[in-house]
């Protein structure tokens, strides 16, 4: 895997490539703060992941886990009849099942359950909606939505190609139709779609 490092980084920052699903290479009680983000679809055993985080977290240190929900939805029903979104959900549901690594982390409360099982305390969870497209009235959310739309539209194949063609081996001609319908949805200003991201915080109790 190529590692792209910025030309300038703070003196207390370094980059390492490792496999987070194996035993972590750091000693016990190394970090005061551990941030884990966007590993949906990559983790088979969330409890084991958080147990390693607990081992490497210093007493009275904190963990923060942030995971997006792959579901695309709306509060006003404007996404309900879109076949491409039903296929989007099916792709990630069946793809995650085939991989043994779920994409829908929020549905099973995998963050909270894994963090609690690892031994952390003072667990708090908060969810944020982020719109897809510039439909939100709030200027800041509208800006966020435009970035989310651009990201999804530019990276559609990056998100879906492996699952569709390699893991599930669905028909290639149908894939091009799916991409076309997804882009049409993303450009439709009448659809008030959003996704959610859940942040879970917890603390490792001080040693008695």
In short:
The chain is α+β, with helices and mostly antiparallel strands. It has one domain (31-203).
SSE layout and pairings?
Blueprint: E1 31-37, H1 46-56, E2 57-68, H2 83-99, H3 110-118, E3 121-131, H4 139-154, H5 156-167, H6 172-186, E4 194-203
Parallel strand pairs: 1-2
Antiparallel strand pairs: 2-4, 3-4
Question: Which key terms come to mind for this protein?
Answer:
208 residues, alpha+beta, 4-stranded mixed sheet, 6 helices, TAM domain-containing protein, SAM-dependent_MTases_sf, methyltransferase activity
What does this structure look like?
The chain has one domain (31-203). It contains six helices and four strands. The protein has helices spanning 46-56, 83-99, 110-118, 139-154, 156-167, 172-186, and strands spanning 31-37, 57-68, 121-131, 194-203. A four-stranded mixed sheet has the order 1-2-4-3. Strand 1, helix 1 (46-56) and strand 2 (57-68) form a beta-alpha-beta unit.
> Portion of residues in helices?
25-40%
Pattern of helices and strands: EHEHHEHHHE
Distance between the termini: 42 Å
For the biggest sheet, the summary is: 4 strands, mixed
What gross morphology would you assign? globular
> Average pLDDT value?
95
Strand % is 15-25%
- SS summary, helix count: 6
Q: Compute the CA-based radius of gyration.
A: 19 Å
